[in-house]
Amino acid sequence: MTAALTIEGLTLAFYGVHVLRGVDFAVPEGSFTGLIGPNGAGKSTLFNAVSGLYRPDAGSVRLGEAETTGLSPERLVAAGLVRSFQLARGFPKLSVFQHLMLYGAAQPGEGLLAGLFGSRAARQREEQLAERAFGIARRLRLDHVLDNPVTALSGGQKKLVEIGRALMAEPKILLLDEPMAGVNPSLTEQIAEHLVALNQSGLTICLIEHDMALIRQLCAPVIVMAEGRTLTQGTFEEVASDTRVQEAYLGRRH
Amino acid sequence: MLSYIVFTLTLCAIYGLLALSLNLIWGGAGLVNLGLAGFFAVGAYASALATGAGAPVLLGWGAALAVGAVVGLLVTFATLRLRDDYLAIVTLGFAEVIRLVALNERWLTNGSDGISGIKAPLKAEFGTQNFALFYLGLVTLVLGLVWLLLRRLDLSPYGRALKAIREDQQLAAFAGKPVLRFKLQAFALSAAIAALAGALYAHFQSYISPDHFQPLITIYIFLAVTAGGVGRPSGAVLGAYAVVIFLEATRFMTEWVPGLQPVQLAAMREMLIGLALILVLHLKPQGILPEQIPKAPAPPASA
What we know:
heterodimer, A: alpha/beta, four-stranded antiparallel beta sheet, 10 helices, 39% helix, B: mainly alpha, 13 helices, 2 strands, globular
């Protein structure tokens, strides 16, 4: 199987503290890959290094066949890699609808001249994006808060907006950093179903999650990180029965 | 009295352009540009020098736009990594540099003597009285056009992306927005508008000198945009009119307040302006016309 995302020998240190010490793994094309590991394993830092927030000290990141190590976030988005953030972030004075629209790919209306004078291409694209945004908002049950600024949303709703705008971007691969944390259980179930449906329609997803029941339900393969390295990978049952994984979570027995 | 009102309204429109320029870069992209007076001066000198060398007035205004945009790009490149307070300090310095260059490069700008006899377009045809009215109409028309364009920009996908950059530059990059391109374009356009305002001012006054471009102008414009409503072109224009009219009206205070000496009046005016700003911010913290979050269009009928 080809890999949508390949990470080789990735290292990153902050002020001499080695947070990533050589991460190697591949996210297979079309998979719903889980990334787990105890707190401080370097999972979010890995996402940051892959998505362009930090430039890795060494190692390489490839999207499909293309080398993307150290590219800027906007270039990576253009290449099809979109991520969400663990702490839902948003633009305080933009409405939910504007957030969704903002993330739409290929917007001719974002040219300066099209912005000043208007253009037919820009108008048509806006209509397409608006239709898509309404669809996504309905599925995520955000349609009644479309005109609210994100600051007026609950924590759970902010998480939904985070997922919604990632979907607007029509990514090839989606990196989700604990998208369900803080969302109520019935909605979690629905988001999970939605993600599975997206995955089945061809989207590659890599998910960081602490809820092991969700990981078991959704993800294959599951990659385990500990202390800045990839510890092991396999099906959920395989990694769960691995003593090294148990030690990483529970501490070593001496 | 009529000519005084015409003068005041012309000044209003020129300040309105400056306020639109500031609103684009500050209200739009969130960049604090305290160098507004500098771009204003650049445009005034560019047009005065170009028309002084024999160019027609329209060409002079074109030159002001172009030189303003280029200087805007240079300043943006020089300040790429700066935001907030740091950017404010550097741009304030930029405006002072421009003023000092105008003061000292006598071969180009005639130093503190300034440039006089700047062409007034069609003044001979109209006569002095009618010219003032004609120029007021012209400047107001330019203001209207720029307002219309910037309002469109504000509501366009471009304006949306710009506001996203204002709110969170890093997150905007993760939304796939080329932050640098947006900043460069917005700064250049904003500088060009301020320079155009400078050109209109130069041909209105027919005389400019470095004294005309004190940092106080920048402060007045910040006041106008803050009072009018940051992030909304209509608010910026309204604020500019309010500030100029307030500034001019307080000149007549000696007539209403008995026992006030002219010297005291000058000091009182500055105090009143400060007081007025505090009042506006207290009563309407978002400005008189606050920024609006555009409503989503009606969902499709099939929904």
